[in-house]
Amino acid sequence: MRINENFNKLRQNYLFAEVNNRVKAYEAGGKKAIRLGIGDVTLPLPQAVLDALHKATDEMGHSDTFKGYAEYEGYGFLRRAIAENDYNGRGIDIGYEEVYVSDGAKSDTANITDLFAADNAVAICDPVYPVYNDTNVLNGREIVLMPCSETNGFLPEIPDKKVDIIYLCFPNNPTGQTAPKEYLQNWVDYANKTNALLLFDSAYEAYVREEGVPRSIFELEGARTCAIEFRSFSKTAGFTGVRCAYTVIPKELTFGGFNVGQLWSRRLATKFNGVAYIIQRGAQAVYSDLGKAQIAKNIDYYMNNAKLIREALNKLGLPTYGGKNAPYIWFKSSRPSWDTFDTFLNDAGVVTTPGVGFGACGENYIRMTSFGSLENTMEAIERLASVKI
Ligand code: MLT
Description:
The chain is of the alpha/beta class.
């Protein structure tokens, strides 16, 4: 027996595990840090979701409403609610059977790689959400990095080398930047022309405020023949601890005679027994009138935090990126990211995320999230003002 030695090619710790280790060491002395590092929500679940969860839990206690194994691709009631509200209601033609419910966009963006041959070249941004890189490194695929910097507005250019799979995430994690329509259209055209696949992570689409900023890759002409989209209830509706997400695979998406949706269904049936009925009922409630109103309020709350963070950093003379259509604020400090991270943690008791943890091009940058409470966000801002950055 031999271990998958590609593990040697990964950093020893997953980024957020390393952040946690340092926070634990800081708190070991009895101090409590303010967490604006990992993008984890703090507001409790919306009441509409809670009510649906309770109701579904009660159903599980009666033999006539009890449910065993869930459907692999998700229950029709949730798949329909997603297609109607997130797509059809916004003028995008997606059928409910093209929606596949899962336990998270993190798992889906990683698990989707089961479908692809090992010799595909995979393009990812630098900096990037580490999951796209790490899973493909583990599978032994060639990674083509696409540098993102102030110079290109954090919008990666199409690589010179032919690539087969491209991960894009907009609104972006970690930079918080969004991509204009014409820019995304170039990627769709490139993918269609070169027989490449776009993996589009739009987990943060609910944070888009500005008119005209695309929220879905399927707003672009031609995307149905080259793209898969990943979305999540985590950041939209506070499901980070509940777990529910979905992936959209258009029926037309085929490569080498294989239908990608059918392959994904086959994979789900082989390795997954579906998301719990109770959780899917909770997710369905996100689309009720009450659910929509409560979620909008929570997102407003986080976006107000984002504004406060941006303004405070700008006042300190630090230009910021993101935070306008995304819950992440990205800014440059004059020192290596981990040094700044340690200073923020040890001198101010504020947890951030070091940009270099997302890739070499993230060096010197820091990411802050707006997912804290208003009180903690204000306290963190005040403390950071007195720290040497
Ligand atoms: C992040 O902080 O980048 C995200 O919360 C991580 C995740 O969604 O897995």
